[in-house]
């Protein structure tokens, strides 16, 4: 793949696309330095790559590399995304007070003043218990045809928190349909999304009803593996 993206004569946009694909491949293998190097090459070739910046700092947050995460988060110009991921870093570090403070600041903002970052705003609302506020915004955007797998997943989470299993299933069915047509193709959400549901949804009956939408963990000698991520 590395040789393929370096072929002479290819348009910059095509080579950048290949590097972005390489970024995703490295990221899924937990090869973070290789991933970010590929992303930086794509960014230099095609300015549109900047729109995928959230994937970079979120990758480092999930990896626990907060120094790298913050260095890329500082490039974020969208205030909704910036505050949400500041809170997520605090949460990952175990400073829940600081995380909740960031997310409450975010929840007090009007998402309609921003072109992007609405899903981060909605997730922040869910994380601080403002379920109806998140539901209203998510449902409004879905009804306007602004549909993504993450937005439908968050809508499912919001309905789960509201205790409506059937509406949660309907939203997750829509999310899975989108995943099934994505690249790489997936038929279920990963353990990462399931951990979000487990963290926020306290009703065991609701969790049990929704667990089939997520890849189950594999337990080997005391280790917890995300099956899909290790394929």
Strand order of the largest sheet: 1-2
Order of helices and strands: HHHHHHHHHHHHHEE
Q: Report low-confidence residues grouped into runs of 5 or more.
A: 227-231
Shape descriptor reads: globular
- Percent helix: 55-70%
Our estimate of the beta-strand percent is under 5%
Mean pLDDT: 90
How many beta-strand segments? 2
How far apart are the first and last residues' alpha carbons, in Å? 19 Å
Secondary structure class reads mainly alpha
Largest beta-sheet details = 2 strands, antiparallel
Total domain count? 3
How many alpha or pi helices? Answer: 13
**Radius of gyration in whole Å, from Cα?**
18 Å
Structure, described:
With 231 residues, the chain is mainly α. It folds into 3 domains: 1-76, Serine Threonine Protein Phosphatase 5, Tetratricopeptide repeat; 80-128, no CATH class; 147-231, no CATH class. Helices cover 65% and strands 3% of the residues. The protein has helices spanning 2-5, 12-28, 32-45, 53-63, 66-73, 79-93, 96-107, 118-127, 131-143, 149-161, 165-180, 191-200, 204-210; strands at residues 217-220, 223-226. A two-stranded antiparallel sheet has the order 1-2. A hairpin with a 2-residue loop joins strand 1 and strand 2. The chain is globular. The two termini are 19 Å apart. Residues 227-231 have low confidence and may be disordered.
């Amino acid at each position: 793949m590395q040789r393929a993206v370096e072929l002479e004569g290819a348009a910059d946009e095509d080579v950048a696309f290949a590097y972005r694909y390489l970024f995703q491949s490295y990221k899924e293998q937990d090869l973070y330095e290789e991933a970010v190097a590929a992303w930086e090459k794509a960014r230099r070739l095609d300015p549109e790559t900047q729109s995928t910046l959230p994937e970079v700092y979120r990758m480092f947050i999930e990896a626990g590399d907060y120094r790298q995460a913050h260095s890329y988060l500082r490039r974020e110009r969208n205030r909704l995304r910036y505050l949400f991921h500041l809170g997520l870093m605090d949460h990952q570090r175990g400073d829940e007070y600081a995380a909740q403070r960031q997310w409450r600041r975010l929840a007090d903002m009007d998402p309609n003043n921003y072109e992007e970052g609405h899903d981060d705003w909605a997730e922040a609302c869910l994380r601080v218990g403002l379920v109806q506020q998140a539901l209203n915004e998510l449902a409004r955007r879905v009804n306007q045809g602004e549909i993504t797998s993450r937005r439908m997943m968050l809508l499912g989470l919001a309905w789960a928190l509201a205790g409506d299993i059937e509406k949660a299933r309907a939203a997750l069915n829509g999310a899975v349909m989108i995943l099934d047509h994505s690249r790489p193709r997936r038929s279920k959400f990963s353990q990462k999304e399931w951990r979000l549901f487990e963290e926020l949804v306290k009703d065991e009956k609701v969790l049990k009803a929704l667990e089939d939408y997520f890849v189950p963990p594999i337990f080997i000698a005391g280790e917890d593996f995300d099956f899909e991520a290790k394929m």
